[in-house]
Amino acid sequence: MTEHPTSSLDDVVHQRVRLGILAVAREARRVEFTFLRTTLGLTAGNLSQHLGVLEKAGLVTIDKGYEGKRARTWIQLTKQGKKALHDEIATLKTLIHQLEGLAGPADLAGTGTHERPDGEAAPGSGAAPAPG
Is 70 left (phi over 0), alpha (psi -120 to 50) or beta? Predict the structure, then answer.
């Protein structure tokens, strides 16, 4: 039996705020702390904590400096951070593709069924095939 795609999701990257940080940072060469805080709707303390996790994992670098007289903090993805984000997105695409292949849009919207549109039980769902 092959592993389910969710087993390949990276716990460091997949957390909503950290995924947001990586996604926003990937869109630019570097991103300023205040822009990230505002864009993601976070407090400074919450953002700092998540940045610490990403920095410790080697996914971002954090540079502090000045722009004129104003202190600034800049965040930049590392090569490892770009790869981690790419891998996470690839895993999510695999999961989406798998789910779309097993169920119609109504099933993905939460009807609660565990059967594929052809009446067969979804693999690993524990559901019995439809009688027929």
Answer: beta
